Every structure is written in structure tokens, then in C-alpha cells.
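Design request, C-alpha cells follow.
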């Protein structure tokens, strides 16, 4: 016999408190029988006008609600913190952990038996999964889906990627301001998240690959009626998951993380996923480190020819067959944990083994991949003793092994002030170094690691250089960019010690990143180093600064590792 429903500790009582709990919800027009043993499903909604990518989520929630009702559940939608990637300053990542706390405590405090996570814009996915992981209810993820293809002058244009390339063209005088504004209008034509393989699409793909979402969760466009159908089916399914006691920790085990890492390589996904996967694993107590990420990603080819590294967009990916095709190809190559469970009750292999590809140009065959050996590379060395990350599929092959002279920017303001100075002593072989943009240093580990190429080099035709920082990079960006250097400069990591003129060696094949300066000299610089003043002395940011961990730990707050489960709270009277 299965356990009594958690919600019955509220609604199943025939006393003063039971009266309270039922009576106040009856003002929705809820009949008595909804409180008599139906699984109560929380629909955790990140809708906000300040998060344009999630603007359709009230409609999406309506479809989930219908599915829950059809399966005999009782749906209750509630808002949680939303994180609009383009609107929040200094960076939405500063608030990922705050949103995760909101989700966790909302799920724990309310009479819920299961939940549906509505996720879209970049940080909304990890925030909701992290929070839900620390409660461990039966949980299913529904992503909002990507926007339709951008359209400009007869060409498909991609979120972020086009912004970056067009802003560089504007700076180089290659496009006019009028053309720039016209492209803005063409890029966002519908609801949904960025339609390149940026962070939002990457995280939606990982939700699907890890079995937390139904097949095709990643690629169905927001505007496609099949997205609404997926939401409805997810609502139905979570009710069954409650009856089966299929909690999130049963889905997100080591096999799910292995599948996530290989999927990340096979889709040429965002480097941001690295930080988020590490944080989610620490919530669940799954042993998963940067070294696992590098090991598991080896031998994985990038199969999808999607921007930012390639030509196509998420809509094309959907019509080509979507993530099931990628997972099938990984499985045939022996790089999928086939027996990993998924939310629909089947194994991941059962879900994808019959998938068919309708466009081999978009999802390339394993034998002729878009980019071979494209797993994320984790670098070590005296410049990053706790690791750094590079995405080889977005990098220039000629720079994968290179030694160059450091040109150092102490802060983001220093970069902005001097990058286009005609007197800046820099050439195409130099290595740009940016400090104080890590979890504590920015604060929030902003997406500024893909530093703009200095104007005078742009005019010479230079489009890529080695760039190194403790920052993150937008999932829609590209280039030979070393990110997430740990420990960061703001806590006195070796990055803080780099000076103009130092030689730096990057060797991606050897997984090395070294500062070619004698140890005695580094020791002298270390002794003279002083920490920067903190960014805040009160409020959430103060708490964040006191507790945030480094990138190699997932940049979560130290006291949020692990799970408190979903214990029954005390009565409020
Ligand atoms: Fe929201 Fe890209 S800005 S997904």
C-alpha cells in the first residue's frame, strides 16, 4: 500500500485546522471532493513581464492544469521568483540561489504532493531544479520552448549570437544604426526563450536528457501547439508520478548526470550548464565534479549544427527530430546510460530508440559529425588550480595551443575604459585577461568572459583571441574563451596575480592553463595582495557574498548543499 498523500496532513483533518485549510481554498470555488485524496500538484510558475522569454507561461500553466485535472489531481498554481536574463542587473545569476531558496521553501511549506516546474529563460531552469531537488517531491519539468527563428533581410538570425556579431560589426562600421535597429525587431518574433543553442535551450535539453521532462521538451517552439500538448501531458503524468512515488532524486542519479554531460557535448551546449549541473548535483548528493565532466565528455562529438557555433536554430532542430535523435545517436555510440529512468516511466533508451532524423544537415550523423570531440574541456594549471572551462566547439582551432603575452584588465570597468584605446599595447597573439568577475568579484559571475575584441584589432580583421577570466560567458557567445577560473581573483586566486606582459600558455589537448612566471615572483605578488572591498554590507547580496562557493562547486550558497526533504511543517495556529 502506498504512503498517505502529504497533502492529507492539511486537507484530511476533520478538526479546527482542517476547517482552516479547506475553507480558505474553497473560496476558489473548490468543491469538497477535491480535498479527499486527490494528489495536489503545485504548478511552479516563473511568469513575469520582466522575463519576456516566459511571457506565455500563464497560458502554459493553464494547459498543465487541464492535464492535472484530467488525471484526477488537484492543481494549484503559484508564482516564484522569476529571473529575466536581459533585464536583471548586475546579472540574473546573482539571484539564481535566491530563486532556488524561494522554490524550495514554497514547495516545502505548502500542501503539495508533486510539482510541475515551468522553466524558460536561462536561470529559471537551474533555480527551479535546485530548489525542487532539495525537497524531493515527484517533479516534472516543462520548458517554455524556444522562440521562432529570427528573421532579418531574408536571413535567419539567432538570439544573442546575432547581437554579439552585429554589435561588433557596428563598432567596426560595417552596419548602420538603422540596420542594427531593424535586426532588433526581427530577432524576437514570438514568445519563448533564445532560439540558439544558448543557455536556455541547453538547460531545456538537459532537463530532457536527464529524464526530468518528457521527450521533445527541449526543442518544440513556444508557439507550437505541440508545446501546449506537452504541458498537458506533463500535468497528467505528474499525478501518476505521485501515485508511483517517483521523486526527483529517483530520476536525477549518476546516470542522469552522465547523460547530461554527453548531451552537453553533443549539442555544443552552453558553458553555463557546467556551473548549474555542479550545483544541482550538490543539492542531490550525487558525486559529480569538474573532472567527471571532462572525463564523461571525452569522445563526444557535437552533432547539431546550431548557432552559436553553427548555422541553424532551435526551430530547425525541432523539425529535424529534436533531442531524441541526438540521444539515440549517443546510445548507438555507446555513450548513453540507456537504463536511466525518465519522468514518463520509461527508460531514456525506450524513449529514443525509434527516433528518426528528418534533416541530417541539422543533426549530423555520428560518423560525420558537425564537430568531432566537442565535449567541454576542463583545464588545470597554476593559473586555475581548482579548474577552468573552455568550450572547444566554439573556439578557433589555431588557438587551442598557444602562448601569448597577457594584457590585463583589473575589472569590467577597466576593460570598458581601455579596450578601444588606440594606445593599448595589444596584438592578435596576446591573451586578454579579465579579473574580478567571478561569483564574489562581480558579484554574481557575470557573462562577460567573451571580452570584445579591441577596436583596432577588429579593423585589422581579428575576430578571435584567447580570453581568460573568472566570469561566465553567454551561451549564445563563441570564441576561444577560458571561463570559470577558480579560485577567482576576488578571493586571491592566482588570476589576481597576473600582470601585463606575463606569458600565459593554453594547451587544450593537454588540459593545461599556465602562468609562465617563476613561483618566487608569484609568492611575492601573493604577499602583496589585498582583498577588494565587498560589494554589499546588508541584505541578500551580503548573505550571498558571505556564503557563495566557487565556480567548481557550482556557485551555490554553502548552506544549501544537500536536501532537507519535505518534512511536515508545524501547524500555523
Ligand atoms: Fe531569456 Fe535568452 S534572454 S532565454
Amino acid at each position: 500500500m502506498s504512503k498517505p498523500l502529504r497533502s492529507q496532513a492539511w486537507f484530511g483533518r476533520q478538526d479546527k485546522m482542517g476547517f482552516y485549510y479547506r475553507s480558505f481554498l474553497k473560496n476558489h470555488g473548490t468543491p469538497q471532493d477535491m480535498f479527499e485524496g486527490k494528489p495536489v500538484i503545485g504548478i511552479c510558475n516563473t511568469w513575469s513581464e520582466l522575463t519576456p522569454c516566459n511571457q506565455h507561461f500563464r497560458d502554459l500553466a493553464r494547459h498543465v492544469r487541464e492535464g492535472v485535472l484530467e488525471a484526477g489531481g488537484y492543481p494549484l498554481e503559484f508564482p516564484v521568483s522569476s529571473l529575466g536574463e536581459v533585464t536583471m542587473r548586475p546579472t540574473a545569476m546573482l539571484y539564481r540561489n535566491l530563486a532556488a531558496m524561494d522554490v524550495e521553501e514554497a514547495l516545502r511549506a505548502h500542501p503539495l504532493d508533486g510539482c510541475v516546474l515551468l522553466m524558460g529563460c536561462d536561470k529559471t531552469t537551474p533555480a527551479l531544479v535546485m530548489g525542487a531537488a532539495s525537497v524531493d517531491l515527484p517533479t516534472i519539468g516543462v520548458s517554455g520552448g524556444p522562440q521562432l527563428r529570427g528573421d532579418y533581410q531574408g536571413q535567419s538570425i539567432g538570439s544573442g549570437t546575432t547581437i554579439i556579431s552585429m554589435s561588433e560589426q557596428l563598432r567596426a562600421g560595417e552596419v548602420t544604426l538603422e540596420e542594427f535597429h531593424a535586426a532588433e525587431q526581427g530577432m524576437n518574433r514570438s514568445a519563448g526563450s533564445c532560439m540558439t543553442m544558448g543557455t536556455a535551450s541547453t538547460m531545456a535539453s538537459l532537463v530532457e536528457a536527464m529524464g526530468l521532462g518528457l521527450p521533445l521538451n527541449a526543442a518544440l517552439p513556444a508557439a507550437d501547439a505541440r508545446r501546449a500538448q506537452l504541458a498537458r501531458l506533463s500535468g497528467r503524468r505528474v499525478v501518476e508520478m505521485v501515485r508511483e512515488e517517483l521523486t526527483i532524486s529517483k530520476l536525477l542519479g549518476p546516470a542522469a548526470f552522465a547523460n547530461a554531460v554527453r548531451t552537453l557535448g553533443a549539442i555544443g551546449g552552453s558553458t553555463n550548464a557546467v556551473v548549474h549541473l555542479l550545483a544541482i548535483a550538490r543539492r542531490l548528493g550525487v558525486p559529480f565534479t569538474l573532472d567527471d565532466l571532462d572525463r564523461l565528455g571525452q569522445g563526444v562529438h557535437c552533432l547539431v549544427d546550431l548557432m552559436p557555433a553553427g548555422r541553424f536554430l532551435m526551430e530547425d532542430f525541432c523539425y529535424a527530430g529534436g533531442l531524441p535523435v541526438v540521444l539515440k545517436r549517443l546510445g548507438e555510440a555507446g555513450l548513453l546510460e540507456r537504463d536511466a529512468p525518465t519522468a514518463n516511466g520509461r527508460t531514456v533508451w525506450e524513449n529514443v530508440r525509434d527516433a528518426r532524423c528528418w534533416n541530417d544537415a541539422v543533426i549530423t550523423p555520428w560518423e560525420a559529425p558537425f564537430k568531432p570531440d566537442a565535449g567541454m574541456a576542463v583545464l588545470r594549471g597554476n593559473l586555475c588550480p581548482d579548474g577552468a572551462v573552455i568550450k572547444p566547439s566554439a573556439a578557433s582551432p589555431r588557438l587551442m595551443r598557444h602562448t601569448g603575452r597577457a594584457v590585463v584588465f583589473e575589472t569590467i570597468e577597466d576593460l570598458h575604459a581601455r579596450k578601444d584605446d588606440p594606445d593599448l599595447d595589444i596584438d592578435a597573439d596576446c591573451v586578454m585577461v579579465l579579473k574580478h568577475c567571478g561569483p564574489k568579484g562581480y558579484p554574481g559571475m557575470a557573462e562577460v568572459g567573451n571580452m570584445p575584441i579591441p577596436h583596432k584589432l577588429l579593423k585589422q580583421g581579428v575576430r578571435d583571441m584567447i580570453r581568460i577570466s573568472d566570469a561566465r560567458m553567454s551561451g549564445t557567445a563563441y570564441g576561444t574563451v577560458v571561463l570559470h577560473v577558480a579560485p577567482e581573483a576576488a578571493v586571491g586566486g592566482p588570476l589576481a596575480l597576473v600582470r601585463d606582459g606575463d606569458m600565459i600558455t593554453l594547451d587544450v589537448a593537454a588540459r593545461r592553463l599556465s602562468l609562465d612566471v617563476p613561483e618566487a615572483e608569484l609568492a611575492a605578488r601573493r604577499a602583496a595582495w589585498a582583498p577588494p572591498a565587498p560589494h554589499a554590507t546588508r541584505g541578500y547580496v551580503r548573505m550571498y557574498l558571505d556564503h557563495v562557493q566557487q565556480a567548481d562547486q557550482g556557485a551555490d550558497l554553502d548552506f544549501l548543499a544537500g536536501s532537507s526533504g519535505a518534512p511536515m511543517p508545524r501547524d500555523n495556529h
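Comment from the thread starter after seeing the answer: thanks! The two ends are 32 Å apart (CA to CA).
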